[in-house]
Specification:
Elements (H helix, E strand, L loop, with lengths): L1 H6 L2 E4 L5 E2 L2 E2 L1 H13 L19 H15 L6 E3 L5 H14 L3 E5 L8 H14 L4 E5 L1 H4 L5 H7 L5 E6 L6 H9 L4 E4 L5 H6 L4 E4 L6 H12 L3 H17 L7 H9 L16 H14 L4
Parallel strand pairs: 1-9, 4-5, 5-6, 6-7, 7-8, 8-9
Antiparallel strand pairs: 2-3
Helix pairs in contact: 2-3, 3-4, 4-5, 7-8, 10-11, 11-13, 12-13
Amino acid sequence: MSSVRERIRGSIPALITPMKDGKVDEAAFRKLVNWQIEQGSHGLVPCGTTGESPTLSHDEHMRVVEICVEEARGRVPVIAGAGSNSTAEAISLTEHAKKVGADAVLSVTGYYNKPSQDGMYRHYAAIVDAVDIPVLVYNIPGRAIVEMSVELMGRLAKLKNIVGVKDATANLARPLRERAACGKEWRLISGEDATTLGYMVQGGHGCISVTANVAPKLCADFQNACAQSAWDTALALQEQLMPLHDAMFVEPSPAPVKYAGSLLGICTEEVRLPLVSATDAAKAKVREAMQFAGLKV
């Protein structure tokens, strides 16, 4: 497990799930996975929030994870989205990820049903008791309503197979507090592109990124600079990427990133209801930010 833990680092795109005429576009997804690896991405997350996991059927979800593992062929770690607000469902998705060869899973806190800190602890304990696979817990209070305390992270860090966190709080006091509570082996992965530079300076190991879907080389270069403590280079790259980070959330994600992907020929801009495609005003901002970043559109 330690080797998997150490491989969870750098620029890790939270992959979009390309759609075409209401169905998952498997051919486009295969191309996306290979392009990401060729461009220098250090890992892959299929079926996260950006992958529209809430509107994928179980069969679609499992198929997307399978394709990602097949195409990655061990070149980079695959961290499969396998979370749910139902512990039994999360265990089932985690079992499937393990069965098809994912290297680890990303497991979100119980959104909507608002569990207590102890409820979240027992949720994760049940998952790791049931399945022997490294788990990144996913702290995203903006979507889940509940927030995992630093104290809870310290308890979770003692459980076998819980290796770290995807932190989408944008709270830059968290990484240092978690290093103290969880130990230096705890993987600190940002889930918020705009604040990743500050996160990395304070001991972060990488970012599960929306922007990396469409600017994988720039995001990988940024993470490589951070890993080398080349902070001037990292700052220059983050300045180049910042308008794009902002544009990815100018309307509900992943509509903006799918529009950006459509400009690059990666996918259609299609999303599933209740999400809708980006408006013309959002599209203009996305295109402008892509041009600022130096992407050819």
